[in-house]
Design brief:
about 350 residues; alpha/beta; 7-stranded mixed beta sheet; about 25% helix; elongated
């Protein structure tokens, strides 16, 4: 049995755990703050297809008693020199090409410290370099291996990234706009809405198309639009790069050109008023868009909405099933899930 841990957006841990558990041979061992740990049998290659996690690592070890004082940096350097990275390197080499055994270090922590993440990276890289022939590079894009140190209060979880680049970096997402949604969050919203192959999926405020593209990759018949013509152009470019068929057009989400009761699932990241500015009071905008979403939703349909103003969401004949607070863009927006009761 090999061990892994995934890092995810705060608030989506259970969604990521469910996705990991659905893979053959996977056994969830812990679900904690931003982290899901598991053991697995067989090849890890299927793990590279996970959609709701930010990144995934082969579990190397856990360091305990990681205190906040600066003398901890010397200890981290010593511990890093003692890491056995050979098995993880072999696993990575079995599923992707390795060029020159170069490595980078990524570090983050929960709780206050008298040292920075950059100082952790320096200490760890010096320790690893002193005991291994690997070549350190500060540029993660150039590295064959990424060593991840995730410190949750007094415990540090240490892993080696399975893939060369982070899982949240989708190759298709080359065109960006303000407020653009992280692909793993989009995928998690689609999971919450129970989007399946063949569902007619709508995103009335599609931005650069992340939700639609992730939905199309799941087999949904995805369509959407945006009032911003630049965003629509970016969404079309991203969809082309992703190699999926998505219907995208310029429109006003307050007057959707869609027949009543024709959409199975609606998943959207509504304007928050900070990333995207609307031309009327946000309460009025939300009221109009909610009315349109309710009009086009088919019986038995579901809606998942991301917003930092959930109090502005109002539907006449939909029931709120769930609300999940997450961390995103330095804020704590809510994913609100509604189901049709018609």
């Amino acid at each position: 049995m090999n061990k892994i841990f995934a890092l995810t957006t705060r608030g989506l841990e259970s969604i990521s755990a469910d996705e990991i558990a659905s893979l053959p041979g996977m056994h969830i061992t812990e679900t904690a703050y931003r982290r899901v740990a598991a053991s697995y049998e067989g090849s890890p290659i299927s793990l590279l297809n996970l959609r709701t996690v930010d990144d995934l690592y082969l579990d190397i070890t856990a360091w305990n008693n990681v205190i906040h004082t600066r003398d901890m940096l010397a200890v981290i350097k010593t511990w890093s020199a003692e890491l056995d990275l050979s098995e993880a390197a072999q696993i990575c080499a079995s599923i992707r090409p390795i060029r020159n055994d170069s490595f980078s270090v990524t570090a983050s922590f929960v709780g206050k410290r008298n040292y920075s993440a950059d100082e952790i990276k320096t200490a760890a890289s010096e320790g690893i370099s002193s005991a291994n022939p690997w070549i350190y590079t500060p540029d993660d894009r150039e590295a064959d291996f990424n060593i991840r140190i995730f410190i949750d209060h007094e415990t540090a979880f240490v892993g080696v990234r399975l893939s060369k680049s982070p899982l949240h970096e989708r190759g298709y997402k080359q065109s960006q706009r303000a407020g653009s949604l992280k692909p793993p969050v989009a995928a998690a919203m689609l999971q919450l809405a129970e989007v399946s192959a063949g569902h007619r999926l709508l995103d009335p405020c599609c931005g650069v198309g992340t939700i639609l593209i992730e939905g199309a990759m799941m087999g949904a018949v995805a369509s959407g639009g945006d009032l911003d013509t630049d965003a629509v152009a970016a969404a079309k470019a991203n969809a082309n790069l992703a190699g999926v068929k998505v219907g995208i057009q310029t429109w006003d989400a307050r007057t959707l050109p869609i027949p009543e009761r024709s959409i199975n699932r609606i998943v959207t990241n509504l304007p928050w008023g900070r990333q995207i500015v609307v031309d009327e009071p946000l309460e009025t905008f939300y009221g109009d868009v909610c009315g349109e979403m309710e009009r086009v939703l088919a019986p038995g349909g579901r809606i998942a909405i991301l917003t930092n103003t959930p109090q502005l969401l109002h539907f006449k004949q939909l029931s709120q099933e769930r609300a999940i607070e997450i961390s995103l863009f330095g804020q704590t927006p809510t994913i609100a899930l509604y189901t049709s009761i018609r």
